[in-house]
C-alpha cells in the first residue's frame, strides 16, 4: 500500500517509535503521548534545528501531519511538550474516533522524509501477535 515514494514501515528500519496504547490514548483523551527520548532520537534528526528547538520552548507546539499508512488518511495534529518533558499529539481523538483502537494495541510511528509527515500504522492488536 501507499503511494510512490512513501516511506514504508520496513524502509524506516531503526527509526520506529513503537507505542502500546494506554487507556488514556483510547478513551476520553484527545492526546497520545510519545516519550521524550523517542522524539529526540527518532524525529528530531529529520527536523530542522529551528523546528526541534522551537518545540522545546515553553507553551510552543508544532503542527504535524499524521498519516495512517494503511488507510492513506492524513490528520493534522499539534505536537506539544508536556510537564514531564514527553510529547503529546493533540488531535489524536480524530484518529481514535475513526479507528477505535483498544487499550493494549500497538502502533508504530516513523518520519516520512519524502513527504515531511509522521506516518503510523497498527502493528499489533491487543493480546495478539504482529500483523505484518
Explain this structure.
It is built from 4 helices and 7 strands. The protein is α+β, with helices and mostly antiparallel strands. It has a single domain (25-122), classed as DNA-binding pseudobarrel domain (At1g16640 B3 domain, Beta Barrel). It has a 7-stranded mixed beta sheet with strand order 1-6-7-3-4-5-2. The two termini are 12 Å apart. It is found in: Nucleus. This is TF-B3 domain-containing protein. It comes from Brassica carinata. Keywords: DNA-binding, Nucleus, Transcription, Transcription regulation.
Structural key phrases:
132 residues; 33% strand; seven-stranded mixed beta sheet; alpha+beta; At1g16640 B3 domain; globular
Structural class: alpha+beta
Fourth-level CATH superfamily: DNA-binding pseudobarrel domain
| Estimated share of beta-strand residues | 25-35%
| Low-confidence parts | 1-5
CATH topology category name: At1g16640 B3 domain
Q: What is the tally of helical segments?
A: 4
Order of secondary-structure elements: EHEHHEEEHEE
Rg = 14 Å
Mean pLDDT: 86
Alpha-carbon distance between the two ends: 12 Å
Major beta-sheet overview: 7 strands, mixed
Q: What form results from the Cα inertia axes?
A: globular
Strand order of the largest sheet: 1-6-7-3-4-5-2
- The CATH architecture category equals Beta Barrel
Write down the CATH class.
Mainly Beta
> What is the helix fraction of residues, given as a range?
10-25%
Domain module count: 1
Amino acid at each position: 500500500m501507499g503511494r510512490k515514494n512513501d516511506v514504508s514501515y520496513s524502509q524506516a528500519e531503526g527509526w520506529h517509535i513503537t507505542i502500546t496504547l494506554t487507556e488514556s490514548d483510547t478513551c476520553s483523551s484527545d492526546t497520545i503521548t510519545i516519550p521524550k527520548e523517542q522524539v529526540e532520537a527518532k524525529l528530531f534528526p529529520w527536523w530542522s534545528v529551528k523546528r526541534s528547538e522551537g518545540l522545546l520552548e515553553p507553551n510552543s507546539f508544532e503542527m504535524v501531519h499524521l498519516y495512517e499508512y494503511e488507510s492513506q488518511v492524513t490528520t493534522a495534529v499539534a505536537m506539544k511538550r508536556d510537564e514531564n518533558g514527553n510529547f503529546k499529539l493533540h488531535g489524536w481523538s480524530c484518529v481514535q474516533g475513526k479507528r477505535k483502537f483498544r487499550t493494549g494495541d500497538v502502533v508504530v510511528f516513523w518520519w516520512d522524509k519524502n513527504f515531511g509527515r509522521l506516518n503510523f500504522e497498527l502493528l499489533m492488536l491487543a493480546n495478539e501477535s504482529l500483523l505484518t
